[in-house]
Amino acid sequence: MRLKDCHNFHDFKKLAKKKLPSPIFHYLDGAAEDETTYQRNTSAYNDVDLVPNVLRGVENIDLSTTIFGKKLDLPFYLSPTALQRLFHYHGERAVAKAAEKYNTMFGLSTVGTVPIEEFNNLNAPKMFQFYYHKDRGINDAVLERVKASTFDVLALTVDTITAGNRERDLRTGFKSPPQLTLSSLFSFISKPMWGLNYVFREKFEIPLLKDNVSALSNVSTSIGSYFSTMLDQSMNWNDAEKLASDWGGHFALKGVMNVEDAKRAVDIGCTGIIVSNHGGRQLDGQRSNFDQLAEIVDAVGDKIDVICEGGIQRSTHMLKALSMGAKAVAGGRLYLYALAAAGQAGVEKALGLYKTALERDMKLMGCTKIDELRRDNLRFRN
Questions:
Q1: In this predicted model, what pLDDT tens digit does every residue of 201-231 receive, in sequence order?
Q2: How many CB atoms lie within 10 A of CB 289?
Q3: Closest Cα partner for 177 from 217, 144, 142?
Q4: 3-state SS assignment for residue 256
Q5: 307 sits in which H/E element
Q6: Which residues are the active-site residues?
Q7: CATH number at residue 269
Q8: What range does the domain containing 357 cover?
Q9: Closest CA to 311 of 38, 107, 97, 117
Q10: Structurally, how many domains does the chain consist of?
């Protein structure tokens, strides 16, 4: 299987599995415990049917939307995700260039693997995903570098105060940086190109944290250990409000699933919220983001930008979330399988496929602009 054989999300996933050692693939592909929330994030879209209109004159389609004061040419963006150079040696560089090509938002994680300064001149909207550490010195240092790199929006992740129970990682022995064990040795040997790229290209590290969090750069440790030992479990609304004030620009909470929390986000000065359960990787058994979307949009959608993140595998999933009232949608696996499959070329192909499919589906829905998508065009089966 090659890139030219990839026609959808599932094809990129198959190719990624062929390219990555098993512990790396399952870190990307896996979620918490029984993975019921992970599966529900996608299956929830199947409980809603689209009801199209006809004879609407749909020759010209405008897919643009505006979030955090920035116009995107596409109504979806590339969520910030950790450790991208584990999946392809170009990592965030490839993702940023693809976002720039399609003029959609690029997200960079605190646990990114490329120096933040490389994105100073990126000609695309930029979101930085912020982890709140116990060590306030780390928080201040990271915030200053984000300000210096002129990011458009700061998104505080609020659903990782401790690590989810990702049992796949326990079985495969996943570590960051990767660590060879007797059980994983064959998996790494069987993917020699990944190994050669990892060993002979630039050293794998976490540039923003390498001087402060040595565990992620010098000693093999799980990302779960970082979440559970380095992040501040006492973080509260006052901390979030102060961070928003210190930042002084567009500010979002990433990981909101509750209407009361959404209302509180408005009160502390957020300009957006990201309805997300971290891809099902944290609390298994919680509701899907799409199932929670309507009540959150109804509560705060007229005050701040509401974004639906996670579980999206098809353009029709995007249409359903946008019809429910999301200003945009986003995802990580949405593009990470494509990154693992073929680097920048893979991400660009994935974005092109989603764009082409969205244009086609908008025409079939009888809509020419994103704001024409309405709940009137949805029917719930239950």
A1: 998 889 998 876 654 544 345 677 788 888 9
A2: 31
A3: 217
A4: strand
A5: strand 305-309
A6: 278
A7: 3.20.20.70
A8: 3-380
A9: 38
A10: 1
